[in-house]
Specification:
This protein is mostly helical. It has one domain. 67% of the residues lie in helices and 5% in strands. The protein has five helices and two strands. A two-stranded antiparallel sheet has the order 1-2. α2 packs across α3, α2 packs parallel to α4 and α3 packs across α4. The chain is globular and about 35 Å long. The termini are far apart.
């Protein structure tokens, strides 16, 4: 197992955005959901054996937001 790196995550951003758009229709809100998931990923680093394991982990972070970070980000107006 290796530590997840920035290129590993960057390659999955389009996948995360697609899944976020299935959760909320608005593109900006979807991007904020992705941002919240990536913030949690940075705070809670993980070791993963494969790219598919990284994807699964990030999608879990996207779907499950126990502290409500995504909701707070959605309330901040865009400039």
């Amino acid at each position: 197992m290796t530590t997840v790196t920035s290129p590993d995550v960057e390659s999955l951003v389009p996948v995360l955005r697609l899944h976020a758009r299935r959760i909320v229709a608005d593109r900006d809100e979807a991007d904020r959901l992705v941002e919240a998931a990536l913030r949690r990923a940075i705070r809670q680093p993980r070791r993963c054996a494969s790219q598919s394991e990284i994807e699964t982990w990030l999608l879990q972070l996207l779907r499950h937001d126990p502290r409500g970070e995504a909701a707070r980000l959605l309330q901040v107006p865009l400039h």
